[in-house]
Write a structure and sequence with these properties.
Strand content: 15-25%
Mean pLDDT: 83
Number of strands: 13
Order of helices and strands: EEHEEEHEHEHEHEHEEEHEHHH
CATH class of the largest domain: Alpha Beta
Oligomer: single chain
CATH architecture of the largest domain: 3-Layer(aba) Sandwich
Helix content: 25-40%
Shape: globular
Radius of gyration: 22 Å
Low-confidence stretches: 1-5, 11-16, 57-68, 267-273, 293-309
C-alpha cells in the first residue's frame, strides 16, 4: 500500500490524447532506492562527477556576480524539456540521472534505452527507462510518442542519448540520430538542451566524469523548421558543447567545474601508507589526493622554499 502511494501516474500533469501516448507510471519509491545506489556506485568508480561552468561565468547576474551554481545549467522554469546528449560510455544514463536529481529535484527523469537491455532489469521500467526496439518502425513510433508526451509534461526531463550508439567524445563531426529532429519538429512548447559528457583521467587513479550544458533552445521559436534542419542545428550545438568541454578537460582545472559527486582519491595499499608516514614525519596532515603529493615531488625547489618561509 505504501509503495503504491509513491507511484506517480501519467495523468498528473499530462495533456496527451490517449493512454498509448502517455508516459508510463513512475515509482518515486523505487527511484529513491535506485538513486541512492547510483550515487554510491559513482563514488566508488570516479574521482568526481563535475559540471562545467558557463562560458560567460564572469558576467554579472541580476542579483550580483554569478556563481557556478547559477550559471552552469539552464533555468528551465516550468517548461517541458528534452535533454539530448552524446554517448561515449555505458555510464552516461547514470550521470544524467545524477545531474538531473541534483539540479532539478522536482522533475521525473524519463529516457529511451535499448529494449533488449531493459529486458534484463524490468524494474527500471517503473523509474523512467523506456524500452525502444532500435532500428524498427515500431521502435521509432514509440520513441516519438514518448518524446511528444514528455513535451506535454512540466514535471519531466526527457533525456536522449542522441547518437544511438557508443561514440568517442572526440570524434568529429558529431552526428545524431534523425529521431530527435522529428521529436522537435512542430512542437508548440518546451526547451531542447544539449549536454556533453566525457570521462578523462586527470591526476588520480579513478577517472573524472565531466559534463557541460549547451544553450537551451525554445522549440516554439521555430514552428516551421523541418526535422532535417532541426537535426543539423542540434548536431552543431552538441558539437560546440563537446568542444567546450574537451578544452576544459584538457586544462585539468577543477575550479572551472562544480563538483556534483565526490568520489575516491589516492592509490591505496602500501603506496598510500608510505605517503601517510612521510606526511606525519613532515608534521603535515595526510591528503590522499594524488595531485598535491605529485606537486611536492615534481618541484623540490618549491617545497624547499615553502619549508624555509
Amino acid at each position: 500500500m505504501g509503495m503504491e502511494q509513491n507511484v506517480i501516474h501519467p495523468r498528473q500533469g499530462a495533456q496527451t490524447d490517449s493512454p498509448r501516448q502517455r508516459l508510463p507510471p513512475f515509482s518515486a519509491f523505487l527511484n529513491g532506492w535506485f538513486m541512492f545506489y547510483v550515487q554510491r556506485y559513482l563514488r566508488q568508480h570516479f574521482h568526481a562527477v563535475r559540471l562545467l561552468a558557463a562560458t560567460n561565468s564572469s558576467a554579472p547576474c541580476p542579483n550580483g556576480p554569478c556563481t557556478h551554481d547559477e550559471n552552469d545549467h539552464p533555468d528551465i522554469g516550468s517548461e517541458p524539456i528534452i535533454l539530448y546528449t552524446n554517448h561515449p560510455s555505458w555510464w552516461d544514463p547514470l550521470v544524467f540521472l545524477t545531474i538531473a536529481a541534483k539540479l532539478y529535484p522536482g522533475r521525473l527523469s524519463y529516457g529511451p534505452i535499448d529494449a533488449r537491455a531493459l529486458g534484463k532489469y524490468r524494474f527500471m521500467e517503473r523509474i523512467g527507462f523506456l524500452g525502444i526496439d532500435q532500428d524498427t518502425w515500431r521502435g521509432s513510433a514509440r520513441f516519438l510518442r514518448m518524446a511528444r508526451a514528455a513535451l506535454h509534461r512540466s514535471d519531466v526531463i526527457f533525456w536522449i542519448t542522441a547518437q544511438g550508439e557508443f561514440v568517442d567524445p572526440r570524434q568529429r563531426p558529431v552526428a545524431i540520430r534523425p529521431g530527435i529532429g522529428h521529436a522537435a519538429e512542430g512542437a508548440s512548447r518546451g526547451l531542447i538542451v544539449p549536454l556533453a559528457v566525457e570521462y578523462p583521467f586527470w591526476t588520480e587513479r579513478f577517472p573524472e566524469a565531466l559534463a557541460a550544458f549547451g544553450p537551451a533552445m525554445r522549440l516554439a521559436d521555430a514552428p516551421n523548421r523541418s526535422a532535417a534542419d532541426w537535426n543539423r542545428l542540434l548536431a552543431q550545438a552538441l558539437e560546440a558543447t563537446q568542444d567546450r568541454l574537451a578544452e576544459a578537460a584538457q586544462r585539468r582545472d577543477p575550479t572551472a567545474f562544480r563538483t556534483i559527486v565526490s568520489g575516491r582519491v589516492g592509490v591505496g595499499g602500501v603506496y598510500d601508507w608510505i605517503r601517510c608516514i612521510a606526511a606525519w614525519c613532515r608534521g603535515r596532515k595526510f591528503d590522499a589526493a594524488h595531485e598535491n603529493w605529485d606537486d611536492k615531488i615534481a618541484s623540490p625547489r618549491a617545497a624547499h622554499n615553502e619549508a624555509s618561509q
